[in-house]
# Entry
Amino acid sequence: MVSKTMKRWIEPTAAPLGFRIFNTCLMLLLAAIFLIPFYLIAVASFTDEVEIAAKGFQFLPKTWTFYNYEYLFGSSTKFFNALSDEGVNVLMISTSEIRIAALVPLEQLQDAVRALHTAYGLDAEQVEAVVYGGTGR
# Structure
């Protein structure tokens, strides 16, 4: 059985029509203000970075591309496939925008560095690159 107090809380109020229209418009505006940045981030991830640099963020870009996702997943795939093919055990991973780091056992360090050099074409005699391989001390 519902008490009279509870009935008042459950029953909808008869707010004036003007207030309900204003309230609905305000809620839609706030929803748009909070959702537009997420939409722009999603659209930017499918936009060429040259177009973003030239024209800024747009609601509908002229060209759509999956390059950002190919780059994101492609570089790490090459990295971990090279280590996996060599049989190197990866203990821990750390990533940033420009670097992938993997912690491997000390006895597999030389094999890991050699495998990564080969995968990225750094084992040639003419190529200069910095590859850090050490114990972390």
The chain has a mean pLDDT of 81. The CA atoms of residues 25 and 126 lie 65 Å apart.
